[in-house]
Amino acid sequence: MQSFPAFTAVPARRAFTRPEPDPPTSYHSPPADPPRAEKPKREWPPSVRLYVQRSFATENSIPDIGRDVMENKLKKVISDAAESNTLLTVDWDNLPLPQQMIQEERMNSLNASLTSAWDDRFPTLSVQETDNFSNGPSAKKRNITEMNYGDNEQECSPPWRSTNGRGSFEDRLTYADKRQKNDLVGKPASKSQFNLETRKRRFEGGSIGFPAQHYVSSMDLPPTPVVAPGPVIGTCQALEKKYYRLTSAPNPDAVRPLPVLEKTLDLLKKKWKKDNNYSYICDQFKSLRQDLTVQHIKNDFTVNVYEIHARIALEKGDLGEYNQCQTQLRELYSQNLGGHPTEFKAYRILYFIHTCSRTDMNDVLSDLTPAEKTTPAVKHALDARSALALGNYHRFFQLYLETPNMGAYLMDMFVVRERLAALSNICKAYKPDVKLRFVTEELGFESDEESARFLCDHGGQAFLEEREDGVRLLTGKVGNIFETAKEALFPKRDTHGAV
């Protein structure tokens, strides 16, 4: 084994000049890589750039062809031209855009499949058979390939192969008729109008790139039933019928005519008084209303049906059905068909007090006539609204005890909220305590027991104190509890007044 010294031999200096340094060994510095040749940047001809710009232009886009599909086709077209060194020889100004190429490919694929189906259904006749047909007694009859399928076609080919020779994108569109085509070609329309016509044609049975298949002979199709215009005339004689949501045209055999509906209403009123079954009555009234709607029956009987259903829904607290009836009644009242319009206008005012809808309330108030404002029901509703707006809870609860018609059912929906608001004001105005009897009279309770139960239900049980002169409410201590309960019941609104 060869040994190496532990030092490096250095020759002795024999002159005063600095010796030249030894060149570095090969293992200390590896040889530098030779510089790589930069790939020359390709300069695209201006015609290619303009072709790319036209491909991405909005007016040249096709709804059925996505942007990614179009980009892939564009890259393939340019790459093929670059590999074959034909970038400068291709007529890029007249070359179809990539989306048009894709559309043409789709049409060719569809035509190929349809042609095979056509050939299977109508086999080609031989020359001898053709001569027999032409020389026979039926020579005047045209065969299937000689029939004209369009207004302007004179060629013996299936209709989907017919073109107008120009080959532009606009000419390959499927037009509903010749007049529509002339309108589109002769008058330059906006892009929105073009898109509208495109969607219309697509829903009529065809789309861009896939024309509507109108080549099927009318002899092969079943006769289309003719639907008589106008309302349905019912023939059903059953008095009771369950309600089903319509998913197709109504069947006259399942619709009851007006004389039967009048008997049904009398039956429903008797059953409601006897059984008081709301789920059954509501279902029957909805079925009755549906039969009126499909037959376009709008008269005093229609108004009566909606009014009765609305009153029953109010009695049971079903605001959904009540609102549906109220909406229809508003339209029926505008046609002067009778009924009780002032009664239901008063209900609308009370309902908007319940929902705290100021915009709807203003609309109702603007529709009232001076004569309607003097009627008892409307005047009572307006007074209740005014009392709440002024904070006069004493007057409001007096009106609550004197509500006409069925307005009390609507006022019951927001009276708890207003009682808590009034209690909050009482606790601020009367300190340190008040008699329970005072609370009963001011808030419209029927007895002290009912008043005490209301206070206990809303956290005031610990603040009722029994004394020699009766039970007293400690208003100085319970005010914050009623204030919190009131805020929880009133709808929250933002700075713009929206709920």
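Second entry:
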Amino acid sequence: MSQQPLLRRAFALMTRNALQPSIRNTVQRRLASGEMPKLTGAADNAFNRERMAVKQHAQASSDLWRKLSLYVAIPSLIIAAINAKNLWDEHWEHWSHLPPLEDRIEYDYMNIRTKKFFWGDGDKLSLTPFEQTLL
């Protein structure tokens, strides 16, 4: 019985120590990724300078696209959704003033059909024969 708390404590210590360096490394990498080290000595050559220039350009580009996504794309989507909702409401507000479909006049030029549709008459949208027999 005395081994149970000991095993539990050892497991907790082992998992805490195993996870701690990986979290610390991730945080350190995130914090260190913004600054570029100064090249000195043998490391200061054309290849390394070009790599650093590419890295700085990639960082600036990713910052630009992140800002565009957050500050332009998301508000634009929200504005478009509000506009669509307003148009939808206006459409159904207009339809509420019209008489019911059964009371409307059917003119000769409406629903002209010169040939049959492959699913039967044009009044049903169902394509399955089973659903057509139910109607």
